[in-house]
Design a protein that fits this description.
The chain is an alpha/beta fold and 452 residues long. Helices cover 52% and strands 10% of the residues. Strands 3-10-9-5-6-7-8-4 form an 8-stranded mixed sheet. β1, α14 and β2 (331-333) form a beta-alpha-beta unit. α3 (49-69) packs parallel to α11, α5 (102-115) packs antiparallel against α6 (118-124) and α6 (118-124) crosses α10 (196-217). The longest helix is centred in the middle third of the chain and has 43 residues, at 222-264. It is globular, with a radius of gyration of 23 Å.
Length: 452
Amino acid sequence: MKLIGVVFGHIPEGLSVPVYPFSRLRLIKVMLPRVKHLIQSTLKASKSMPQHLKDTPVWCRRMTEQIKKVKTKEELLSLWKDELQPYNSKAWWGLMAGGAKAVLAMTLNKKLEKLVDTEDANTLLSNLRGGSELASLGPVVGISKIIKGEMSREEYLMQYGHRGPHEFELSIPDPAEDANWLERQIEEFEKSNSDVEELLKKQHIQYEDAWKRFQERFPNKVKWFEKQIEKASEGARLREAARSEFVRVFRVIRAFALKTGELTGIGANVFFLYIDEVQDLLSGDDSAVKHIPVRRENYEKYKALPPFPSIIRGRFNPFQWEKDSNKRMDYYDSSMPVVIESDSEKLKGFAGAAGRVEGFVRILTKPEESEMLQPGEILVATTTNVGWTPLFPRAAAVITDVGAPLSHAAIVARELGIPAVVGCGNATIRLKTGDRVLVDGGQGTVHILVKN
């Protein structure tokens, strides 16, 4: 439960994980070989990680070009089985190994909170990039480099063109597929007068101040912290790099799917098929195609709903939940009533990134609405991912419904020195664009000062 809380956000009192009625012996028989396989595969992926990260961009470019040249369904199916599927499996284990590295920062954060206050603990973990760069910061730092003439547009798209807000929805194009996407990002960045380098410098000063306080209070723990933060930083960089390269590999499947649609004549409808049905289709069995109209109808129906809670316990009817004005966006438990905060002028979440700031709220449902965010406004969203990163330098602070200390919003905000409160539960419901609030990122609270 503690691990779930750190990853997904606050776990309410009384919420429990349902226990399946497996016998102890049966569970051990089933799980032991799988746990052994998990550990062995993760260790293998961890050892080969440096080479994997180096090889992947080259492999992805080669495969994408090879897919374009395929002329027959048989040739494409063979490419899937021989190249695409095995490498995706390899990338998946790399992602798992990278995710395991997050435990280092998680453990260090818990230890620091026993020594210093939450604000200083967060600040001491705000320099995980060290002398290098976190992959999730790359898209925004890269735009700054383009403007300063330190990076070409071609280099940027090669390095970050696969990253975006919809990385795991293959039916949606990569940012790099839109010829005008990067120019729009640069234009919005220039209009906002954002200075990423200045933000990073300011954050580093805050880190140095917190580090000095730590040295003065705990001189006997200085060497311990230096070793721990070095491990945590390396782990964070590997985790971010592994995720970025996994996305790069995964997005190659989009090229494979589009080629399948082209060769079979079903076009973009291919995205309504499961992968085994795609393989059957390439083998000449088109029986699954008849399900596409109903699947499309369901897709459109569910697409109109807001993002579901990260944690769902019990039977969940999304259409009933969507109509509930008291719903939470972070969790749902069919066996428990929704608890409404007694203090209606205050929201409580995780201390994501230290700092206090007052400002006007701007609620965005998706990063494509980025032009609505004015410099100095407080960004409020259900959750964020790397596709939201270019918006962060424009925001005075960030508030999310869903999130935890190691979520994307918290990590990026800490690195840029932007106050953040994550995992508030229902900030997008309780707040409205134009509300004036006080964000206290060190304490994890949002005070509503003036309702719009």
